[in-house]
Design a protein that fits this description.
Layout: E1 5-13, E2 18-23, E3 26-31, E4 42-46, E5 49-54, H1 56-73
Antiparallel strand pairs: 1-2, 1-4, 2-3, 4-5
Length: about 80
């Protein structure tokens, strides 16, 4: 199963087409060549690539769903 995760853009490196995205303190360097982003954007990340920019409501809902899955799975 493949899962895309909601993350927040922390820093952008335009010259490299990368950014650092964060979720729950976990940082990941992501490819931004498909979607132009800016610091503070909420984004959907899959396989190290930003797939779309999320609205704040979408991001909050997805984070809540991930937290509920974590709680239910006992991780």
């Amino acid at each position: 199963m493949c899962i895309a995760a909601p993350m927040t853009i922390e820093t952008v490196h335009q010259e490299e087409n990368t950014a650092v995205a964060v979720l729950n303190g976990n940082r990941l360097t992501v490819d931004i060549s498909l979607i132009p982003v800016k610091v503070g954007d909420s984004v959907l990340v899959h396989a190290g690539c930003v797939l779309q920019i999320l609205s704040m409501d979408e991001a909050e809902e997805m984070v809540a769903l991930f937290e509920e899955l974590e709680r239910l799975s006992g991780i």
